[in-house]
Each structure stands twice: as C-alpha cells, then as structure tokens.
Request: fold
Amino acid sequence: MKRVVITGLGCLTPIGSSVSEFQNALFSGWSGIGPIGVLPEAIDGSNGIRFNQMAAIPNFDPDVHLTSSVVTATNRTAQYAIVAARQAVKQANLMKHHAAEDIAVILGCSTGGRSSEEVETAKLYYRNARVHPLTVTRTMASAGASHISIDLRITGPVFAITTACASATHAMGLAFQMVRSGAVTAAITGGHEAPLTFGFLRAWDSIRVVSPTSCRPFAKDRDGMTLGEGAAIFVIETLESARARNAEILGEIVGFGMSADATHITQPQPSGAARAMRKALADANSFPEEVGYINAHGTGTQANDSVEAVAINETFGELGPTIPVSSTKGLHGHSMGATGAVEALATILGLKEGKLPANAGITTKDQVDPNINLDIILGEPRILDPEKDLALSNSLAFGGLNAVLAFRRYTE
Amino acid sequence: MEMDELEVERRCIDIIARSKLLSPTAVTREMTFDQLNIDSLDKINISFEVEEVFSITIPDEALTTLRTVGDVIEGVLRLRRLPIPEPVP
Reply:
C-alpha cells in the first residue's frame, strides 16, 4: 500500500484565519473563546441560555473571498470550507500536478447550513412567509464538498460524512484509505461547521453540557464544553506523487481506527474509544511505545474526559500515564463536525514543529482532576521526544462513534 | 399533604411515567431512577418537561443530586417555595 503524506494545510478558525495565525495561537495558548453578546434573535434582550461564551471566527466577510453568486448560494459553513480549501490547495499547488478526476473531496460536516434552516423555518412557521429558493442548497451538509469541487473543477469522488463530532476524523480517515489504496492520487479532506446559531445554542443549553464558565478539559472543576465553529482542510496525496513533484511534505498519515460503542446516544464508553485507538495503532503497524502525543477529544465535560482517560490507559496499559496528552478545545472551542480536523491540524503542526500544544484552560498540576491518570501537558508546549514521533488524534462523538487518526512526523 | 402538593406529585409522576412509557400507577414516589431505568439523558428530558410544566428552572447542581421520583417532587416543591412535608419517622 502507498504511503500518504500531507502537502497542504488550510484553516479558518476562532484562533486564526490562516495556518500561521493558528499556529501562533496554538503554541502561545491564545484562546478564541469570547462573550456571545446578545444574539439578534434574542427575545427581550436575553439569549435565554446559561452560558455566555463561544468560540466564533472574528470578522469573516465572505464577499472578500467569494463571488456574489457563491455567497448567495451558500451558508457560512460552505463558505468556511471553500476558503480553507483554497489555502491548502494553494500551498500544495495541487491542481497543477494531479488530474482532476484523480482527486477526491471528502469532508466532515454535522449540522449543515443550520442558520439558513433556522431563519427560513422561523419565517415559514411564524409568518407563513415564502421560503427562500436556495434554502435546500444552503442547508445540505454536502454543500461544502460540492462547492470545493466546483470551485476547483475537481471531478473525482466528492462527498460528505456526518458522524456528529467525529465527522471530520471519519472523513479524513476515509480519504486516507482511498489515497493509500490507490483509488485516487490525492484528496482534499477535513471538516467545516457553522453551528453557532440561536436555535443550536439553545439546544445545547438544554442538554446541559456547555460550560457556564469556560472550557477547561481534564480540570478537576471542569463544567462543560464551549461551542465553536470553523474549518480545517488538508491536501493529502501519495508519497510518490509528492516526491515526484518536489512538494513540501508537512506530515504523514499512517493509520486510522474507528469503532462504535453501541451502548448509549450520549454516554461514552471507554472500551469503544480504546478499540478505535488500538485499531489506529494496528493500522499504522506501530507499537504503543512509539506514541509521543495524544490530542484528546477532551471536551471538558465530566463524562467525556473521565471516559477518555480510562480509554487511553486501557489502550496503553502501563505506558498510558506517561504519554503526553492535551486537549486544545479550550482555545478553538468544540466545532462539532469540524473539530476533528482542527485538532488534526494542531497535531500535525505539533509533530512538524517538534512542539506539543499545551492543554488549554488549566496551567498547573493541582488543577488537574486527580482521577485523570494522564500526563497532561500544562502551561507551556512540550518538546516532542524525537524517538516517539507518532501521534494520535481522538474524536469521540455522541452516538458512540469513535474515530482516531495516527500521524507521524515525516522523515525520508 | 395539601392539594397543591398532591397535584405537584401527580404531575411529576405523570411526566416520569410518560417519558418511560409506563402507566402513572406503576410509578411511586419511593422509586429510584435506577429502578425505572432512567439514565442521564432521560433525566435531562424529564427535567426539561418538569421545568416547562411548573415554569421553574432546575439548577445544574440540583440536577446531579436527583436519584428518586421523590427527589423530583421535593425539588419542584422547593423551587415553587411550597412547604415540604416532614419526613415520616
């Protein structure tokens, strides 16, 4: 089977609208979480929710990037995808070297064009108003993938995967498998999401897992997640094609594992997550001793972080408490179907720079939950042990859907 | 017990029974959530219904302490500032 490498990175996130901005924030611990303020749809000046923080992309103006016809036809979620994809494709110089029919576009997206759906439904239900004719194309979860293919004239396999908070990781895993098998020579993959809508924020408020203070994964006093938005997109291709065209190789995808808990729609199970990690390691033909970093799903909820810690220890046994682990959600928030891609970007940059991002939200050992038996990276980024240059990026979604990607620092 | 409290109890039991597709007569104040097979998501769902019916807000801290049908009833009474019956010795 072919080796699969990463040759293009792109992102639009609450902590950076370019990869260099994202990287600076990632390693300096700058958080994009801020006050929600009063939403335009708020009733009597109140959002009616228990929390007042989210991680939004600041000052995004689609008109700067896209034609008026594309802006009209799309929701923000697809706009994020197009803009991030263009960055990655430009860096990789992809279109010059691969036939359009040999490139796939496989993206994760969970909520589709949520804001368009809410606005049009409200108009319909409360005013019996006409529904905008582009509502269907704005709301479909595959719109981001389609618009990238149209924007770049890519004619290979193009589709979206939706597995809640693991969507992007499943998408990247499938893209990896397709490139590795030779089904395509390159793929544009990752995830995108724009879920910060009045209705969605209210829905998350009702399920009571959003932090009323701030997201601090693995903290003893953690009290929930912080919702976010964004896109992270990658160009991946075979090692031979990257070498043949002398492309800069930014990292390597070496394994992918997935599993389902098959137990509960919201309560995660350690055994399911552990199985996905073991499968990713086996797929990478690697051993636990080679793992030098785990980017945890680490939502900051009581349930997720406890279960994930148990799962890591179940997977790695005695090595579990010695592997550096961090969650970066305290910086960029939890962007649902995009979050796996954003965290994959953090993982790839960590390996590339030899510097592992710190766990956002807490800085000292005494703040860590004593029941979490992991080596949480605190305060400052940790230098990567060059002998352990394999990293996992975990995504554990509602519905018990687990996906884990294994990355390696690229060496000849 | 005053009528108001009986009505609170009846409505709480009705909400819990409906959420588990049970007859209200099959649910008693003494029953635990475990006995009724009420998991964390059921608890969120029941709390949401209870908040709607009684126009109250159940604080997150209170939610974590609910273990029995009686806890729900007493919590509603407390939040409605109604007197809670003395425990039977």
About this structure: Residues 3-19 of chain B form the longest helix (17 residues). The mean pLDDT of chain B is 88.
